[in-house]
Amino acid sequence: MNRPAHAEQTVRVEKVEWGDERAARLRALMDAEITPRYAALQAALTADEQELRASAFVLDPATLSGVYLALDSDGTALGHAALRRLETDGGIEWELKRLVTVEAARGRGVGTLLIRAVEADAAANGASRVVLQTGTQQPEAIALYEKLGYQRIDEYGPYVGKVPEGLYFARELR
User: Where's the N-acetyltransferase domain (predicted)?
Assistant: First the structure.
């Protein structure tokens, strides 16, 4: 579906609760799209390694500062992102989580709008940077993060030694 270049102007970002039905649907869509990309890697891990890897992705909604939906002018949910307050050995990190854009909305700037909303939330909470974890099988996500100024960093927090395919990024806010 071709849309005019200004189509992203019709998209608004709304803060919602983790349990919002639209947000849950988008997270399920993300899981359905991403899981097959890592199937071979998952199959090559031992049961203990699989359990360790899975533990890295446990997300307690109580640690979230915000959950954001990108909505089209008709209210259709186009994308999702969340900001998590993460306590690490180095202190508090603010982490971008669960960024997903529906396929029909890709290329419209939805991901960028969501990332900027998360960054604004993090800055309002005193963060000097936002960190994120992605994986080697998500080249479109990697390209977006790099385009927006995210730089590769070492693994951090819950991912250390648990996610062999993990890639880690940060963007300084100040």
Answer: 24-174
CA 82, CA 156: separation in Å to the nearest integer? Answer: 18
Whether this prediction's pTM lies above 0.85 is answered by: yes
Characterize 157-167 residue by residue with b for buried, 16 or more Cβ atoms within 10 angstroms of its Cβ, and e for exposed: bbbeebbeebb
- Assigned CATH for 5-172: 3.40.630.30
pLDDT digits (tens, 9 = 90+) for 59-84: 999 999 999 999 999 999 999 999 99
The pLDDT-based confidence of 7 (bands split at 50, 70, 90) is very low
